[in-house]
Amino acid sequence: MSVNEVFVFRPFKLIALLCVFLALCLDVVALLSPAWVTADHFSLSLWESCAQSAAEEAQWSCFSTLTSDWQIATLVLLVAGAVATLLAFLVALISLCRGTQRRHYRTVAVLLFTAVVLQSCALVLYPIKFIDGRVLRTYHEFNWGYGLGWGATIFMLGGGILFCLRTDVYEDAMY
Fold this sequence. Notes:
By secondary structure, the chain is an alpha+beta fold. The protein contains five helices and five strands. Strands 4-3-2-1-5 form a five-stranded antiparallel β-sheet. A hairpin with a 3-residue loop joins strand 2 and strand 3. It is elongated, with a radius of gyration of 21 Å. The protein starts with 11 loop residues before the first helix and ends with a helix.
């Protein structure tokens, strides 16, 4: 590099990798979360539904939610999105570490956009079918597990967009 040459380092791909890592972490926590829907004497997660009996305040009875078709579909869509995100993270990490960066960016972006579509379908399906199937006579709310699912989806989308940016084309034209 001579005195007149300037090198501009834009860390878009590292930020994208960080977004994908955060999305993966949020997705795992959302999948394992015990609180997707809560009410006064009711709690629903992806794995089990718990209700507190009216007679005894301390007695909770829980049963598996994997008997309902829509809950299984939601779980499958979320797990498929998490697997696509994990694959995208591994491909991006390996390509950044080996220096074959530009070759695999499109693959990573496609995997992330696929995960966004899968997650979005699951996160839209869940409240629609929950409200359609159950009429809770008390106030209920979608809790932090559901919110973490949307947070993971937003980070996946951000990572996919950042992996689509082609900064090398603009830099070569400027210098």
